[in-house]
Amino acid sequence: MEIEFVLGYLSNLFENQYCKFYILDTFSYRMSGLETLRFLQEDDSFFEKPRKTSEDKLRSVILEHRLEHSNVKHTFHPITECSNILGAVQRNVMEFEMDLIVLFMNSANRAYDHQISSILNKIRRCPIMVIPETMSLSRRNKFVFVSDFMNPVPQEELDYMLFLFGYMKLEFKILQIGQPCQISLHQEINHKTLHSKLSTISQSMVSIRNINSLDKIKEYGSGHTKSILCFLDEKPSVLRRLGVTKSFVNRLGPIDRIPIVTFHV
Question: Which superkingdom, per the lineage (predicted)?
């Protein structure tokens, strides 16, 4: 089941950090035509049943997870809402000031489904991690930043990234999109600033590699399955939030067997 899979991965990834995990499950009352009239006549038990089913499911998942992954640093909080997933995520991210959104990706999909795509395009308050179903639960030892570095990485965002992942004793790498001969002085300054910061915490030398295209990024990810790919994406613009344009990560699509994280810069 996808919830257990994600919780198992996150518990291992953040095993040494104090964490509150909020597990969101949404439901709806779907009906049309004459069913709508019946809907208006239903008693309270009709409306409570979907909520209770959701609450029972989340309680069962949390109980089973605690039996298999005992960690006093981790607490789990179920959230059940009658809502669409995007609206529920937006509300709860604000209410609980969440540090990270984690989404599950079905391996059968070659592109992000509507729900994941909407969240990637419209949420900007915190980073987003996408975990594919085909990913193994083995430990990650490399954190790879991917960007064209047209924009500098703001110090606040960089500190936030290091707050989330810097304590894990990872190796940090940089993938710069573009041919070396085409990199401007402005881009070079931006990636060197990031390189300097990462060098203070990386477990080995921080390498910089150039990569030419989206296909090459996917190829790199599929060949480095013990890595986490971090995309430095622009903050969602008005056009993105309206659905007119898509984020770089949406255009790239999912990468098999490897988790990705997007930070907005």
Answer: Bacteria
